[in-house]
Amino acid sequence: YQLNEATGGLFTGAEFKRHSLEVYEPLATTYRGYTVYENAPVSQGFTLLEELNIVEPAPLSEMDPLGAECVHLMVEAVKLAFEDRNRYAGDPKATGFDVDKLISKEWARERLAGINRATAKQDRYTPYGPSEGDTTIFVAVDEAGNACVFIHSIAFNFGSGVVVPGTGVVLNNRAGRSFNLVPEHPNSLAPGKKPMHTLNCYMVFQDKDLYLAGGTFGGDGQPQWNLQILSLILDHGAGPQEAVDFPRWLSFPGTDMINLDKPYELQLESRFPGATLSALSQKGHKVVQRGPWEGGGGAQIIMVDPETGLLVGASDHRVEGLAIGI
C-alpha cells in the first residue's frame, strides 16, 4: 500500500483489508471412467473439462492421434470451449456465471452436434476490439500420496514492471492482460472483480485413488495441450513421458484479447505426417508448421501406478524442466 501511495495508485487501502484467501471445491467431470478435477473460475480450467466432455462420445481410441480426423475433432472442440469462455465466463461472484452448465454432459452433446467433421469452423464470438505469459508450474507427490500441482504467472514478462521496494516481489499484470472494456461483458473491468485467466492444472482419479497430476504453462495452449496429453494417456495408453513428448498442435487464437481479431490458424509441430497436414488443409484449417519441438508449452506430470503405487514423473523436453525423486 505504501508503494501505491508513493506512485499515485488508485487503491484506497480498503481493498487489502477486504481480501481473504479463497478455498473452494474443484470442478470435476468424468472421462472414460476416470474423474478429472480442474480449477474453478476465475480460471479457465473449465474449458478442459468441457473439451473432454465434447470428445468423449467419439471413439478416439480407434483413431490415429497423428491423423487428421482425430486432430480435427479435438481442435473443433477446443474452438467451441473457447467460444463459450469468451461469451459467458466472468467472476461468478460478480456475474452469476453458471460454469456447471458448460461442463455438463448435456451441453457437450449440443456442442458436439455442431461440429462439422469435414470442415473447420471459421466464425467465432469476439466481444473485444482488435502473448505469451511468464508462467511457472511444478507437480509434487509425497510418500503418503499427498499431491500438489502449483501454477503461477505474473502475466507477461516482468509482469506490471513494478517491483515492491525491499522485497524483490514483482507485481503481476493479470488485470491488465485479462479484463476487457466492454461494459456488458461478464469479464468486463469493475471494482472488486477478479479477471478471468488462463492458469489451470488438473488431477485425475481412478475411483478414490490419484492417477495423474499435471499441467503446463502457455496461456491458451494450456487446456489444448492438457487435452492432448490426457487423451494420449487415457484413450491410447501412452506413458507420461511418451504423452509429453508426442507431436503437439495449437489452435490460435484462443481467448487473449490482443489476438482475438486475428484469423484462425492451426499450428502443428513438423513431426506430424505430411499427409495429416494436407488433410487438415483440405478441411479448411490454415495449417502453420512449427519446428519439431516448437509447438509450445512445458508440461509436467506425475502418474501413480495403480497396481504398485510407483510414482512416474515426466518433464517436457521443449523447456527447462526435470522429473526427480527425492
Walk me through the structure.
Residues 128-133 have low confidence and may be disordered. The chain has 11 helices and 13 strands. By secondary structure, the protein is an alpha+beta fold. The protein has a single domain, classed as Gamma-glutamyltranspeptidase, small (S) subunit (Glutamine Phosphoribosylpyrophosphate, subunit 1, domain 1), CATH 3.60.20. The strands form 4 sheets. It has a 6-stranded antiparallel sheet with strand order 1-2-7-8-12-13. The chain has a 3-stranded mixed sheet with strand order 9-10-11. Helix 3 (46-55) crosses helix 7 and helix 3 packs across helix 9. It is globular and about 60 Å long. The two termini are 40 Å apart. Helix 11 (274-282) links the parallel strand 10 (265-269) and strand 11.
Strand and helix layout:
Elements: H1 2-6, H2 14-18, E1 27-31, E2 34-38, H3 46-55, H4 68-88, H5 92-95, H6 99-102, H7 105-113, E3 135-141, E4 147-153, E5 163-164, E6 169-170, H8 174-178, E7 201-206, E8 209-215, H9 222-234, H10 240-245, E9 249-252, E10 265-269, H11 274-282, E11 287-290, E12 300-304, E13 311-315
Parallel strand pairs: 10-11
Antiparallel strand pairs: 1-2, 2-7, 3-4, 5-6, 7-8, 8-12, 9-10, 12-13
Helix pairs in contact: 3-4, 3-7, 3-9, 4-11
**Strand-pairing-aware structural class:** alpha+beta
Strand order of the largest sheet: 1-2-7-8-12-13
C-alpha end-to-end distance: 40 Å
Helix content, binned percent: 25-40%
Order of helices and strands: HHEEHHHHHEEEEHEEHHEEHEEE
The CATH superfamily name is Gamma-glutamyltranspeptidase, small (S) subunit
Strand count, sense and closure of the main sheet?
6 strands, antiparallel
- Write down the overall mean pLDDT: 92
CATH class (first level) name:
Alpha Beta
Q: Tell me what the CATH architecture is.
A: 4-Layer Sandwich
CATH topology-level fold name? Glutamine Phosphoribosylpyrophosphate, subunit 1, domain 1
Number of helices: 11
Number of domains: 1
Morphology: globular
Which segments are poorly predicted (pLDDT under 50) over 5 or more consecutive residues? 128-133
Number of strands: 13
Portion of residues in beta strands equals 15-25%
Instruction: Tell me the radius of gyration.
Output: 20 Å
